[in-house]
Design brief:
The structure is a single chain. The protein is an alpha+beta fold. The chain has one domain: Gcn5-related N-acetyltransferase (GNAT) (Aminopeptidase, 3-Layer(aba) Sandwich), CATH 3.40.630.30. The protein is built from six helices and seven strands. The protein has a seven-stranded mixed beta sheet with strand order 1-2-3-4-5-7-6, with helices on both faces. The termini are far apart. It binds coenzyme A.
């Protein structure tokens, strides 16, 4: 039986290295890579993103890759592992009937790449794109326990309204406003209920 030495142990980090990860606009041929990323996801990440345990189909990812630029835009985080792999995806879709131009974003980073700033990079890229395309508000819907999304919203330092809506947390972020001073302490307890799943 082979035993790991201390050096071998130290040389095997629990997280992937984000330094070789790039963020780029989604391309028509990315559907397969996005599909493969979803096969590597934990049930928790899948649930937090889609609020159900179902993995979207290849056709659904193809539709995201073919998003009409008038309706939204998407970005992927990629790295090289014997070829390019997708480790993160974020896209927004313009709401059809909102009085002010409003977009709903969705974001997902593969488990072993989470907590390294990749979500923040994708989030900012999406936000800049939405601003240039005159989106005035972003409606973020998430599970009430999803503290990373709360941090993404709060870390953007833009004004927002928070409310509970149909068992979800909803943040309506106003884009294009002067950023607010970053609070000294984050308030994660803006809702007086929680839901278990
Ligand atoms: C939400 C998600 C996209 C964030 O991506 P990420 O790469 O993990 O995020 P980052 O490393 O950029 O961190 C984002 C913020 O969360 C904070 N954060 C990181 N780990 C955290 C944790 N365990 N608890 C609370 N906040 C945490 C970070 O400090 C950062 O805030 P800051 O920039 O103000 O410091 C990712 O965790 C994910 O895919 N989760 C599952 C799917 C999901 O929840 N999607 C959102 C629903 S639309």
């Amino acid at each position: 039986m082979q035993h790991l030495t201390i050096d071998q142990w130290v040389a095997q980090p629990s997280q992937q290295d984000k330094n070789d990860v790039i963020v780029r606009p989604i391309q028509l041929g990315d559907a397969n890579l996005i599909f493969e990323m979803h096969q590597r996801l934990s049930p928790d990440s899948l649930y937090y993103r889609y609020l159900q345990y179902r993995r979207p189909t290849l056709d659904e990812f193809a539709a995201v890759c073919h998003l009409d630029p008038a309706k939204g835009a998407g970005f992927v985080a990629t790295t090289q592992r014997n070829g390019e792999i997708v480790v993160g995806i974020a896209y927004y879709v313009r709401e059809a009937h909102a009085q002010q131009p409003t977009a709903e974003p969705g974001i997902l980073v593969e488990d072993s790449f989470q907590g390294q700033g990749i979500g923040r990079s994708l989030w900012q890229r999406m936000q800049q794109h939405a601003l240039v395309n005159r989106i005035q508000r972003r409606r973020v819907l998430c599970h009430p326990n999803n503290q990373r999304v709360v941090r993404l919203v709060q870390g953007g330092c833009l004004p927002y309204q928070a409310k509970a809506s149909s068992g979800l947390s909803e943040y309506l972020v106003t884009l294009g406003e002067r950023p607010q001073p970053r609070p000294l302490r984050w308030s994660l307890a803006e809702f007086d209920f929680s839901i278990s799943y």
